[in-house]
Write a structure and sequence with these properties.
588 residues; mainly alpha; 3 domains; 3-stranded antiparallel sheet; two-stranded antiparallel ribbon; 27 helices; 7 strands; 3% strand; elongated
C-alpha cells in the first residue's frame, strides 16, 4: 500500500514549495543526519517520529540550519516545538522566523479569549533569551500593543523630575526619571533586563513606552490584540469557540455535493503543513484515497484542510496543548471521523472516496462522520425513555462492562467505550466497525432489558438491599433466576443462602472434582431456558441478540469461577450471584 509519506516524493510535488535547500556539510555526513538536498516537508517527515532531543540534535547538525528552520511551515514548527518541549527549544527559537514566533505567541499565550500573564512572561522570556535584539524590534514594531499590555500588567511606573530621585527602594531606574518595580519580585530581573536593552536600543522609544503605560487601558488593548490574533490564526483553522463548534453540527450525508466539479486548489504562501496528516493511520480511507494516482495539488489542499480541521478541533474542544501527544490525539480524532464519513458516503472504495474528497471540503466530511455518532446517541436516548432498568431507577453500572457504552455515548460529544483494559477507555468513534460494535452491544442490552421486564412482571423484583453494590448487576439477576429454577426453589430473583449457592455449583460441576471447572454442559440449557421466557414477540434480530447476550453471560460466569473450589465459596465475595448473609458473615 502506498504510504502518505511516500506520496510526498512524487516528481510533481518536488517541484513545488522550494523555499530552501537543506544540505549537510561533508564532515557531518555518516552521522545519521539528513543528507543531500531536502525540502521543508522532507525535513518534517524525517523528524516527526523522533524523540524531542533527537529532533533538536538533527536540526542543529544541519549545515544550513539557519535557512532550513525558517522555511518550515509555522504549524509544523509548532509541532516540533511541542515535541522538543518549550524549555529545551531555545536553540530552535533562535533560528525561527518572526512569523513562527508570532504563531507560537498566538497559540501558547492565550487562555480562551484572555491573554495568560504567566505564559506571556514565559514565552517572551524564552524568545528574549534566544534573540534579545529581534524581540526588541518586535516589541517596538508589530508587537507594540503587546508591549503596552505586558508592561502595564507586570510593573508599576513612577515619573520624577531629574535630580529628585524616588526614595522608595522597591523601585529601580535607568535614568533617574522613570522608576519601575515588578509586581512579582521573581520577575523583577527579567523586566529590568528587557527595559535596559530597550533603553540602550532606542531611548526615545523607551521614554514613549514608559510615559504611555500610565494611560494604557488594559482591557481595550487586550481586546485589540485578541482581534488581530484571531485574524492571523483564522486562516490556520483556529476559530473563536462559538464558530469552531460548528464542526459538531449534524449534517445529512445527502447534502454533500456530487458531480459538481473539483474544489479550487489553494496556493499557500509557504508549503502546506505536513505534521498533522502524518498521524493519519495507513488504513484510513483518507490516506487510501490519496494513494490513487497522487495529484500534488490535491495533496496540498488536503494537507492544508486537515491541518486547519485539527486546529479547529483544538478550538472547539478547548484543548490546552501541553505536549505533542495532545496534538496527535486531536489529529487521530479528525482522521477517525473523516474515515467514518468517507465510509458512509463511499463505502470501502478508495476511488469513490477520492471523488468525494475532490468535490467536498474535509470539514463537511468530518461532520458526516460525527453525525453518525450523534445518530446512535439519539437512538440510545430515545430507548432510555422507555427502558425497564431506568424505570427501576438503576444506573448504567447495572450492565457491568456493557454499561460503559451508555456512559460514553451520552456525553455531550459521544464517545465509544473500548473497555476498562484499554487506554484510554473512552475514545471517539472511528468508523463503521465502532458503530456496528456499539449497536450490537446496545442490542444485547435492549434484549436482556426486555427479558428482565418480562420476568419481573411475573415475579416482581423487590427493592434490592444491595442495589448500590457492584455485585447487583443483570448477570446476578439472570443467574439467580436460573439457579432458583434448577434448584426447584420458588421462582424469582430472591437472594440465595450460601448452602443453596453451594448446591447450585455442585450441580453445575457434576462429575468434575478439580479445577478448571468449565461447566459447558449447562450453557445450552441456560441460554435456551432463559431465552424461552422472553422470545414470544421478539423480532429475529432481537432474538439473536438475546441468545448472544445470554451466551456471553454464561461465558463470563464460568470464567469467573473456573478456578474457585466449591468449598471456597464465600457469600461475602460472590459476584454473579445474589446471596443472603449467613450467621457470622461480616457486613458488606
Amino acid at each position: 500500500m502506498t504510504r502518505l509519506r511516500d506520496l510526498m516524493h512524487c516528481p510533481a510535488m518536488e517541484e513545488r514549495n522550494k523555499p530552501a535547500v537543506i544540505k549537510v556539510s561533508p564532515e557531518r555526513k555518516g552521522r545519521g543526519e539528513i543528507a543531500g538536498p531536502a525540502e521543508p516537508a522532507d525535513l518534517v517527515k524525517s523528524l516527526i517520529s523522533l524523540s524531542g532531543s533527537e529532533v533538536l540534535r538533527r536540526i542543529l547538525d544541519l549545515a544550513r540550519a539557519e535557512e532550513a528552520v525558517p522555511a518550515i511551515p509555522h504549524v509544523d514548527f509548532y509541532w516540533l516545538i511541542k515535541k522538543i518541549g518549550p524549555e529545551d527549544s531555545q536553540p530552535l527559537l533562535k533560528l525561527a522566523s518572526l512569523d513562527q514566533w508570532q504563531f507560537l505567541l498566538d497559540i501558547e499565550t492565550w487562555n480562551r479569549d484572555r491573554l495568560d500573564p504567566k505564559e506571556a512572561t514565559n514565552w517572551l522570556g524564552r524568545l528574549f533569551e534566544a534573540d534579545p535584539e529581534r524581540v526588541l524590534d518586535w516589541l517596538l514594531g508589530e508587537g507594540e500593543l503587546f508591549a503596552y499590555w505586558f508592561f502595564s500588567k507586570k510593573m508599576e511606573v513612577q515619573v520624577t523630575e531629574r535630580g529628585d530621585p524616588l526614595q522608595d527602594t522597591r523601585f529601580s531606574t535607568l535614568d533617574d526619571i522613570y522608576y519601575f518595580r515588578a509586581f512579582n519580585t521573581e520577575q523583577g530581573d527579567f523586566i529590568y533586563e528587557v527595559l535596559r536593552h530597550l533603553a540602550e536600543k532606542d531611548y526615545l522609544r523607551y521614554q514613549a513606552v514608559m510615559t504611555g503605560l500610565a494611560g494604557t487601558m488594559q482591557d481595550e488593548v487586550e481586546e485589540e490584540i485578541y482581534r488581530l490574533r484571531n485574524v492571523r490564526i483564522a486562516e490556520d483553522g483556529f476559530l473563536p469557540y462559538e464558530e469552531a463548534v460548528s464542526l459538531y453540527a449534524y449534517l445529512d450525508p445527502g447534502s454533500l455535493k456530487r458531480d459538481e466539479g473539483l474544489l479550487p486548489r489553494p496556493e499557500p504562501e509557504e508549503g502546506p503543513p505536513l505534521a498533522p496528516i502524518l498521524h493519519v493511520g495507513e488504513n484510513n480511507l483518507l490516506l487510501r484515497a490519496l494513494a490513487q494516482d497522487p495529484d500534488p495539488l490535491l495533496l496540498d489542499r488536503i494537507r492544508l484542510e486537515f491541518a486547519g480541521l485539527c486546529n479547529q478541533l483544538l478550538s472547539a474542544d478547548r484543548v490546552q496543548v501541553s505536549d505533542a501527544e495532545d496534538l496527535v490525539r486531536v489529529c487521530r480524532k479528525g482522521a477517525g471521523y473523516i474515515h467514518a464519513g468517507l465510509e458512509r458516503l463511499a463505502g470501502d472504495s478508495p476511488e469513490r472516496c477520492r471523488k468525494i474528497l475532490e468535490e467536498n471540503p474535509l470539514h463537511r466530511i468530518f461532520q458526516v462522520g460525527f453525525s453518525l455518532a450523534l445518530e446512535v446517541k439519539w437512538e440510545t436516548k430515545r430507548w432510555l425513555k422507555v427502558a425497564w432498568f431506568v424505570r427501576m431507577d438503576l444506573k448504567p453500572a447495572f450492565w457491568g462492562e456493557w454499561g460503559g457504552i451508555l456512559v460514553g455515548v451520552l456525553q455531550k460529544r459521544p464517545l465509544f467505550y473500548r473497555g476498562a483494559a484499554s487506554h484510554p477507555s473512552y475514545s471517539d468513534f472511528e468508523g463503521a466497525a465502532d458503530l456496528r460494535l456499539y449497536r450490537e452491544t446496545l442490542g444485547r442490552i435492549k434484549a436482556v432489558d426486555r427479558l428482565l421486564e418480562t420476568l419481573s412482571s411475573r415475579h416482581p423484583l423487590e427493592e434490592p438491599r444491595d442495589a448500590g453494590d457492584f455485585r447487583f448487576t443483570f448477570h446476578a439477576l439472570l443467574l439467580n433466576f436460573y439457579a432458583r429454577q434448577k434448584l426447584n426453589l420458588e421462582p424469582g430473583f430472591a437472594p440465595l443462602s450460601l448452602q443453596e449457592v453451594t448446591n447450585f455449583f455442585r450441580l453445575l460441576r457434576s462429575g468434575k472434582d478439580n479445577p478448571p471447572f468449565a461447566m459447558r454442559a449447562f450453557k445450552k440449557g441456560f441460554v435456551e431456558d432463559m431465552a424461552a421466557h422472553g422470545q414470544e414477540d421478539l423480532e429475529e434480530g432481537a432474538r439473536k441478540a438475546l441468545v448472544r447476550a445470554l451466551s456471553l453471560v454464561w461465558d463470563k460466569f464460568t470464567e469467573e469461577y473456573a478456578w474457585v473450589a466449591t468449598a471456597d465459596l464465600d457469600g461475602r465475595y460472590l459476584n454473579f450471584i445474589l446471596t443472603s448473609p449467613s450467621p457470622g458473615d461480616a457486613p458488606r
